[in-house]
Amino acid sequence: MYKLNKLYFIECIDSTESPHTNALALYNDTATKLKITDDSIETKYFEFKTKEDFFLILDSIYKDEITNSNILIHIYTHGSSKLDGIIGNDKKLITWEEIQNLTRKINIKSKNGLYLILALCHGIYIGEKISIKKKAPFNSLIASKYEEYVTDIYKLFHTFYSNLVFDNNIVRAFKEAQVAEDTFFYKNTNICVQDAFKSLLEKREKHLPILYKEYLKNVPGEKISFEEFDKINRQTFPEIIKNMEEEFFIK
């Protein structure tokens, strides 16, 4: 289920950072080991400088032969301090929504096979911008909520890819690479649906008294109690969840 077929590294090189701890160094080490242990896994490295470059790279991955494949896209650049996307050398913001619009196409074509790594600061916030009214933009996400140091990012993912080379299981390789102080997290899109439903429930709790007042005002005849009104509303939950999952998940 979590076996990798294709690995793509996408990096915006920062000239102020050491070439020994960037994504290219990580890619070269990983690709070299994979040629020895499992040469069936296809690997590609891309460098981007501008927002347009980034879009073209993701589009080229979409046009690749990725149907029914498990794909890992590793993105290394700077996360926005405003938590709203990533930034290349041209300093133009690439929003989470813009990234999702492209990764969603890849995920649909691969039949929900996209595992996305955002090896940068604040990448976990892409998960907060997921719309459950559209198809899932990825199967799973590995990202951080916090500001990260280059050396810490390199250390974590060097261990992750070393694990992956000898045990081709994306989730297990990451979880075994984690240590207590790590600030990167694994998040499956199932959790996104759960979070969306939780948010829906919270909104419902706020609006239900207003809906009940409208019911009392506008519906003629004998009235039911607020408790009964609440119970009837709750009976629709399974159908709501089913509709959300059918609209969001890729089969």
The coarse silhouette is: elongated
Poorly predicted regions are none
- The SS-based structural class is alpha/beta
Tell me what portion of residues adopts beta-strand conformation.
15-25%
Overall average residue pLDDT: 92
Described by strand count, sense and barrel closure, the largest sheet is: 6 strands, mixed
Number of helices: 8
Helix content: 40-55%
- What series of H and E elements makes up the topology? EHEHEEEEHEEHHEHHH
Using the CA coordinates, give the radius of gyration.
22 Å
Spatial ordering of strands, largest sheet: 2-1-3-7-8-9
Count of extended strands: 9
- How far the N terminus sits from the C terminus, by CA atoms, comes to 14 Å
Structure report:
There is one protein chain. The chain is of the alpha/beta class. Helix content is 47%, strand content 16%. The chain has eight helices and nine strands. The chain has helices at 23-37, 51-63, 96-109, 150-166, 170-177, 189-218, 226-234, 237-248; strands at residues 6-11, 42-47, 71-76, 78-79, 85-87, 93-95, 114-118, 140-144, 184-188. It has a six-stranded mixed beta sheet, sandwiched between helices. A three-stranded antiparallel beta sheet has the order 4-5-6. The longest helix has 30 residues, at 189-218. The protein starts with 5 loop residues before the first strand and ends with a helix. The relative contact order is 0.12.
What's this model, at a glance?
The protein is of the alpha/beta class and 251 residues long. The protein is built from eight helices and nine strands.
